[in-house]
Write a structure and sequence with these properties.
The chain is an alpha/beta fold and 260 residues long. The chain folds into two domains: 33-116 and 217-258, 3-Layer(aba) Sandwich (D-Maltodextrin-Binding Protein, domain 2); 119-213, D-Maltodextrin-Binding Protein, domain 2 (3-Layer(aba) Sandwich), CATH 3.40.190.10. 32% of the residues lie in helices and 25% in strands. It has nine helices and 14 strands. The chain has helices at residues 9-12, 16-23, 57-65, 79-87, 154-161, 170-178, 189-197, 231-243, 246-258, and strands spanning 33-37, 41-42, 46-50, 53-55, 71-74, 93-97, 107-109, 115-116, 119-124, 141-144, 163-166, 184-188, 205-213, 216-222. The strands form three sheets. Strands 1, 5, 6, 7, 8 and 14 form a six-stranded mixed β-sheet that branches. A hairpin with a 3-residue loop joins strand 2 and strand 3. It is globular, with a radius of gyration of 23 Å. The protein starts with 8 loop residues before the first helix and ends with a helix.
Length: 260
């Protein structure tokens, strides 16, 4: 007669091979395929060029940062949906976006910025107005793109002090500006110039100085993604590229392409 005896798990784990077998299914997931996305209308940093295809400075940089053996999978969705998907862990990495307190609740950002990103006030050339401080935008109609965050305290300032609509994309807001529906449009200086050079009538619009803010952009890993374990490695490589001007070289290449 055989007697079945149950051995407590803690006692069984005294034998290494038993413990390893028991815990095999509990090992953390590895980052084998990195699903990434970005604002699809933000050249020269990143821009949609196909159904699920992105090109630009951020994409070129990612190729230099990702470890060997990790596959890259781009996906393209409207910007606000990208952020929601990253929050839920459906997207592993968001390319070159601004750090905010809200985004830091669900994204683990690199410590080293990917690229500079001055934010500018764009106006019709024929309707330029004196501008030195944020207060000079009062009593005028402005716009920012849906989901855009500008940093430097401006996101907290404008809802209380300025008449700004948050809607549409960069291209859509430039059309509103051209049509006289708004007096100014605030967006990335580099992204705005790239968009204008790609469209007819862009010469009728210019940007004012100084910039609204001059904060950088960062890569952000979803905190629910196993790929977030690569954050330190990304920072090491970003730091090395920053020291030898590799980041600026990549951005300058795409700024040059935007001029043609």
């Amino acid at each position: 007669m055989r007697v079945s005896v149950k051995v407590p798990f803690a006692m069984a784990c005294a034998l290494p091979w038993v413990c390893a077998l028991a815990l095999a299914n509990e090992s953390p997931k590895r980052c084998e395929t990195m699903v990434y996305s970005a604002n699809p209308h933000y050249a020269p940093y990143h821009v949609q060029t196909g159904a699920h295809r992105l090109e630009g400075a951020s994409v070129d940089l990612l190729a230099k940062l990702v470890p060997e053996g990790v596959k890259l999978k781009p996906v393209v969705y409207p910007w606000k949906r990208v952020l929601v998907m990253a929050e839920h862990g459906e997207i592993d990495l968001v390319l070159s976006l601004r750090k905010t307190a809200e985004r830091e609740t669900y994204l683990a950002f690199t410590a080293v910025p990917s690229f500079p990103n001055p934010i500018a006030v764009f106006v019709r050339t024929a309707n330029k107005f004196p501008y030195q401080t944020w207060a000079d935008l009062k009593h005028k109609r402005g716009a920012i793109s849906l989901g855009d965050r500008l940093g430097g305290g401006f996101d907290e300032y404008w809802p209380k002090e300025l008449e700004i609509l948050e809607r549409g994309t960069v291209d859509e807001n430039f059309r509103r500006l051209e049509g006289g529906h708004i007096d100014y449009f605030i967006t990335s200086q580099f992204a705005g110039v790239a968009s204008l050079r790609a469209r007819q009538g862009g010469s009728k619009i210019t940007y004012l100085k100084p910039p609204i803010t001059e904060e950088g952009l960062y890569f952000g890993f979803s905190k629910k993604s196993p790929c977030a374990a690569l954050l330190a490695q990304f920072d090491q490589r970003l730091s090395a590229m920053e020291k030898n001007d590799g980041l600026r070289t990549i951005l300058n290449k795409h700024l040059g392409e935007a001029q043609h």
